[in-house]
Write a structure and sequence with these properties.
about 325 residues; alpha/beta; four-stranded parallel beta sheet; three-stranded parallel beta sheet; 11 helices
């Protein structure tokens, strides 16, 4: 126990130092960027509000959620704090403005995060279909993957197509250059990442894993993750020339060698940096690479930052 406490103290000193580094960066550089003062009047219909005829798919900054289906995961108070990354239901996230969902399943079609398990995928599908039925122009990227250490649910691709088939945008590189209006009435880009099954192929109703890429690192250090995100983003080609989505996750991961292992206090070390990150993308001339931006415990300000930058791009201001 003494060794763990000593490690924790050292780790906390490093964390405090990294938080201070980001605070000083904010003080010296600010958090303003083109579109930072824009706030959508209707977050539920923010793509509609930007005019689907003007919004090209590769101009959108997609507000995403990390581990989207974890709002009821595990046992409340007991195990939930170790696996919960969102406090809102999938439907509530979509209404708030989320447009990319990260859904992880096990062999029983249950949503899971590591060893923690929650409701069946049916709950997510119901929420998505409810949102689709209440809106007209909102496009959703739905990432569904088999969680690490688990097997694919039996006949899962068939199940997804039965549930969502009429809304699915089929795998096609040409989609990236189209406007939302040209894609409608189809509404969902479903990226299916199986563990054992054959991956989707061109022309399929589903998109393969290569269409959503990222460079996740396993750390609870905020400045380390912040700089890693900027480094890997800088290595990507501009959105206009690539045929895949690239995700940046403004999140942190609890580590087992410290005393703070609940998700929320750990990820809160970087959650406040979303606008700072976008501002730094402009400062480092890589803003044209930012496309999918995800967070834990999504809120209105995170959505507004993404929508604001999208608005600026459409208006030729970014």
């Amino acid at each position: 126990m003494g060794a763990l406490l000593s490690t924790h103290v050292q780790r906390q000193n490093l964390i405090d130092k990294e938080i201070k580094t980001l605070q000083e960066l904010e003080e010296s550089s600010g958090c303003s960027f083109p579109g930072s003062d824009h706030h959508p009047t209707d977050r539920k219909n923010w793509i509609l509000g930007l005019n689907p005829e003007k919004v090209h798919l590769n101009h959108i900054v997609w507000p995403g959620t990390h581990n989207s289906g974890t709002n009821q995961i595990g046992v409340e108070i007991v195990t939930r704090p170790f696996g919960e990354c969102q406090s809102l239901s999938v439907y509530e996230q979509l209404v708030l403005g989320t447009r990319l969902l990260d859904i992880r399943v096990n062999e029983n079609r249950e949503i899971c995060h590591g060893i923690h398990v929650t409701y069946n995928i049916d709950v997510v599908i119901h929420d998505v279909k409810r949102f689709i039925s209440e809106t007209k122009s909102e496009i959703i990227i739905l990432e569904v993957r088999t969680e690490f250490g688990h097997s694919d649910p039996p006949e899962f691709e068939k199940y997804l197509e039965q549930q969502l088939g009429e809304y699915l945008i089929h795998q096609d590189d040409k989609v990236f250059d189209k406007t939302v209006a040209e894609i409608l009435p189809k509404r969902i880009i479903c990226i299916w990442k199986p563990c054992n099954s054959d991956p989707p192929t061109p022309g399929d109703a589903f998109w393969s894993s290569g269409y959503l890429q990222d460079n996740w690192i396993d750390t609870d250090l905020p400045a380390t993750k912040f700089e890693s995100n900027l480094k890997y983003l800088s290595q990507q080609p501009p959105m206009s020339s690539r045929k895949y989505f690239y995700r940046v996750e403004n999140t942190l991961t609890p580590q087992t060698d410290t005393l703070v292992t609940h998700v929320k206090p750990v990820t809160n070390r970087i959650r406040w940096c979303a606008r700072l990150f976008i501002a730094q993308c402009f400062f480092r001339n890589i803003a044209d690479r930012l496309q999918v931006f995800s967070t834990d415990f999504i809120d209105e300000d995170f959505v507004d930052a993404c929508v604001g930058l999208t608005w600026a791009r459409i208006g030729g201001k970014a």
